[in-house]
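Re: weekly structure request thread

Next one in the queue (489 aa):
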Amino acid sequence: MEHTVAIVGRPNVGKSALFNCLAGRDISLVFDRPGTTRDRMVTTARWDKHRLTLIDTGGIGVEDREGFGDDIAREVELALAAATEIIFVVDAREGLTPLDQTVARLLRKSQRPVFVAANKVDGDKQANLDSDFLRLGFKGVFPVSAAHRRGLDELRDALVADWGQAAEVEEPVIRPARPTRLAIVGRPNVGKSSLINALIAEPRAIVSEVAGTTRDAVDIAYTWKGEPFLFIDTAGMRQERRMHDALERAMTGRTAHAINRADVCILVIDASTGVTMQDKKIAGLIQEAHAPCMIVVNKWDLAREQGDASKTKEREYYDQVKRDMFFLSYAPVLFLSAKSGERIEGLLKTCATIAKNRTFRFQTGPLNRVISRAIEKYAPPLVNGRRFKVLYAAQQAAKEGTREIPTLLLFVNSNALLTPAYERYLDLKIRESFELRGCPLRFVMRGRSTEAREKTRSRIKHNPPPQRRAPKRGTYKGASQPRTNPASR
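Done, posted below.
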């Protein structure tokens, strides 16, 4: 039996901190402010021999001035419906509150085993603070401290006690293919969450007209035509000068981390505003991370309503995006509408193509021929009287734990002789011959060592090449008779 454990409670009692502790890694954003968590956070965990799914939820009964209370409550209801066990988190320092009793009545209706985690019991002197919660009548009250990782073993043991011996037997499991991680990033309110809901055809992410609705990086699993994907819905990234809140800075940091752990980044742009300076900054983060990427121009339905969605207009818009995002020249550009679902299928096809191109394998022979022809057609510029030379090229395997992108190892005469312009030229010529759409191409240079250069010089010194003899005086090449002085005739 598969077990799903939902973590619920009123706002600001430490649900996300406990979720991270039980998951064994930092997944949910933890911040000392009620209502920080809005969307459901789902992950898989392993406790000894037990596998389970953990769900973090927003606070029940949150007073949200921005109007997200109903959406958070709906997310909690979905989590309770999917749960087989529930961890009810309370604040041991504040004791039993009326809102805790309201949550308890809701949990009794779910008819699931409920375990009370009395959080914020940071020391032995506070161990008796959990006594107020015994009268709730649930399976047990466990004093814990998510901040100091106290009492977690007792809580875990109580959860798995009724799971039976069969769950503890290690069975051979066929591991599924690792999903392709797709991070959807962009400025606030460009339609990132709406795009995910349109892709998976269900309201998984909370959507609102309020900028900054999404606060954390939410992982959403989805399978399309047998290919597993993991969408990462992220918080919108504002300009740093406009961030006056520590929570917003933390949200931006989570988005930057999502870019680093994603296999493919989907940069969403608002069609009504075009490419802004902040869009370019976000694209710069993608470029620095050497991440495969695609650019999505969302809200194209607005352009259609205004009569500006013709093929000519679309081509002009495409050219403008390419000019503004010249440093992401490898990224394809798609025009779509998350609201109407227009061209959504094309986005998934492009994602699958980019995911395939990430693992492209070069054949050494054709690769070296392409590079040789490129150098013959356009020679490298002189740098301090010398030219850049590629002696040999081969593909380099990705290091374990790093993002896999096409990487070429070039054995060259000197790294310092390669100019940025000529590197872009080689990149372009290689892309013309191989399918690398959506993927950056990384060059790793290996110049000849000083020892190798000294050996070459020594060999030339001791074995100089044969020198040509100068022609005899008074003769010229191709003449059968010596040249005579006309004055002597």
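The chain has three domains: 3-168, 180-357, 364-462. The longest helix spans residues 246-261.
Next request, please.
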